[in-house]
Amino acid sequence: MNDPSTEGARSGDGRTIKLAAIGDLHVSENGENQFRDVFAEMSDAADVAALCGDLTNFGKVREAELLAEDLRSLTIPTVAVLGNHDVEAGQTEEVLRILAQAGVTMLDEQAVVLAGVGFAGVKGFLGGFGRGELGAFGEDAIKAFVDEARNEARKLENALRSLRTERVVAVLHYAPVVDTVEGEPLEIYPFLGSSRLADAIDRFDNVKAVVHGHAHRGRYQGATPRGAPVYNCARFVVEEALGRPYALLEI
Ligand SMILES: [Fe+2]
Ligand SMILES: [Fe+2]
After folding, report:
1. For a designed S-S bond to 215, which of 92, 93, 181, 209 qualifies (C-beta 3.0 to 4.6 A apart)?
2. 158 alpha carbon – ligand 1 mean position (Å)
3. What is the 143 CA–ligand 2 centroid distance (Å)?
4. What tens digit of pLDDT does each residue of 99-110 get?
């Protein structure tokens, strides 16, 4: 975009930028070019794009290749995290390579600054929220499970700590708060995210927005305990809330 009104934002002089965020694309082997037009629209509307995981349906190489074709129409700087669906087939390294080749910056431990705004992200993990959070007690399998949740939160915290920008966006797949999973069946809340992610985010004052996916039937907007705005950008949720599949946020 060469629009002079966005030049300042792009050079990171403190003016707000527009972020287009979408999650849960679930690109399948028979879903050719499903997102080409959406990506073109996002490129016109925003300065930076964030993809919030479940980019493919089963994490298959063919699905990632089809997504990469559509990504040619996403012409703005783009960050992404994987979702649980993207690791299902055990072809994660290949999927990551294809996405990187398509120009996407995969966030995981490594943060990035785009248009003056910092982006930190991880897939995250599940385990529940608040008083319902699963603790590391008893069986080894439970301890390993909780370790995974803690490890994702620790990676997010480290990435956030590495950023010195005034404004930061956290990009996740799993939900960090219960607010944005409301609407899903109560029985599956513990499988939709983890408060440990919000604990990491709330250690910092510069997180201006948190975007995530995974909860297809959740709520669009919420906040962390310390007030960082949280947006469930699963495309089904955004479509329902805004009448288009991506969120457009001023950061
Ligand atoms: Fe999903
Ligand atoms: Fe998911």
Report:
1. 181
2. 26
3. 22
4. 999 999 999 989
Task: Convert the pLDDT of each residue in 211-233 to its tens digit.
Answer: 999 999 999 999 999 999 999 99
| Residue carrying the six token digits 């012409």 | 75
User: Three-state DSSP class for 152?
Assistant: helix
CA of 71 to the centre of ligand 2 (A): 20
Residue 71 backbone dihedrals phi, psi, to 5 degrees: -65, -15
Q: Which ligand is nearest to the CA of 87?
A: 2
First to last CA, the chain: 18
Which ligand places an atom closest to the C-alpha of 236? Answer: 1
What are the E-state strand segments in the chain?
Answer: 18-22, 48-52, 78-81, 104-106, 112-114, 117-122, 168-172, 207-212, 221-223, 229-232, 247-250
Q: How far is the CA of 24 from the centre of ligand 1 (A)?
A: 4
Spatial separation of the C-alpha atoms in residues 205 and 227, rounded to whole Å: 10
CA–centroid distance, residue 110 to ligand 1 (Å)? 23
Cα separation of 228 and 47, whole Å?
21
Q: Give me ligand 2 centre to Cα 230, in Å.
A: 17
Q: Kindly report the pTM of this predicted structure.
A: 0.94
- Cα distance between residue 107 and residue 206, in whole Å: 18
